[in-house]
Amino acid sequence: MNNAPFVLTSSSVIRVLQPAIIPRVSAIAQMGFCERAAFNISFFGMESNQYSANGEIGNAVHRVTIKSILEILDLSKKGVSIRKATGLRIFEDNTMIDIDTNWKRFMLAGVDDPLDPIKEDIDIRAARLLDNLIDEEDENKTFLFRPEFTIRNIKIPLEGRLDLIKIKPSINTRNGENHEYINSTELARIEKEHVEIIQLKTGKSKAPPATWKLQANAETLLLMETLNLKEPPKYTWQFADKDRHRIKFNFAKVHESIDKYIKFWKSEIAPSITGFCPNCPLKDGCLTWAFAANNRLAENGIIRRKAEFDLSKRIRKEISYDDRWKLYVELKDPEQRQLEGSAITNLTLDVSSIDFVAQELTLMGDEAFGQFLDFSIGDYVTVSDGNPNLGSNPTASIIDIDLNTRSIRLRFYKGDLYYLIHEGREKSTFTIDRFNFSDGMISMKFLDSFFRRSPYADVVLQYWNSMVRQKRIDNNDIESR
Hints:
By secondary structure, this protein is α+β, with helices and mostly antiparallel strands. Among the domains are: 25-256, Alpha-Beta Complex (Lambda Exonuclease, Chain A), CATH 3.90.320; 332-434, Elongation Factor Tu (Ef-tu), domain 3. Helices cover 47% and strands 17% of the residues. It contains 16 helices and twelve strands. The strands form two sheets. A six-stranded mixed sheet has the order 5-4-3-2-1-9. A hairpin with a 4-residue loop joins strand 6 and strand 7 (360-364). The longest helix has 33 residues, at 299-331. It is globular.
């Protein structure tokens, strides 16, 4: 008889945790625009037709800028002085690489030629930033830069991903100019002389709207609570032509918005219209069917809305399960998660295996590799220093597992492999966590989008309507017998 101790799997542990609600900063920011709009975006997935195209161009500018800045700074810290011509070439090369890597995203967003709108911003931004990087080269060697910094704070509760954070450790922490990589957990503990949040915005400078201000408040609160800061960090909106700064912060407004969002989630209260409807890109869906009175809708419209609300409830249930996973990784260290089958830890990067064109690399395991339960080819994982709730943690899919060599090969889809080779991080150890527990989530989101946007939705609903009517007739016939 096997006397080995019984260990619950991660899925079993997660399912018994109390449901968690962790609002996203992006959802809270939309509350600054309109409560109803925030509700529609979060729970119905509404978006305007133009939003997708503009969003993809903005995301590309965002990716190219951050990657280029970090590449230039890494060269500088290795003794290669910053030269403007070289820096401009790095920006140009990264623009082309991003278009090649993310062409499917542009295609789905209806952007036939992304190069011109991306370069319109990048050409102005790159020249300005390089002048600043040259002027501040020596000072920047004492700073840490963390791209796409994920923070999930269970206590607030709030989660967000900050575009770029810039941290100057205290002189007691620094080891000259070439300090070793400081992982995300240590980053929260060390003394810090200066901290800055940099939020990238596409195009020329403009006055920040209410959504941006609320987002700045939320991100600042999130970083302060997580990194144990006594004072608010510097907050910068980086436009192509100039920077703007957030000086005053209203954290009470953030807490108020979080409390209200959670009540929306639990269906305890209904969202109010707090924005200006004529300027809202979501007004058609919002005013015509989502919250219209029943007496203003035809039967087909009522059925359509019921389908939407049912899907929304199921999506919220699935998201709640994902949020329980975030609670789980907060409660369990990497070794315990590995024992329970949801993580593989103490992985090292085989630098010679990096393929930048294919966005692939291989991680090597230790003697415990192979004891995991839940990993297989095709799974999505997040790569972290050990805590997927904190840090620059890219996502990837598993494309190969070799138990003989104790190795696992990953493919990255958004060009964010470089997160793992910045500031000497490639010499540290990594943990991967399988996070895609909500198998039904993708299909439900697809159906949700279908009911809202597909020209075939009315045909399906008409068929559904006829089936419902026929079922009622059949039931009435049975009852009358």
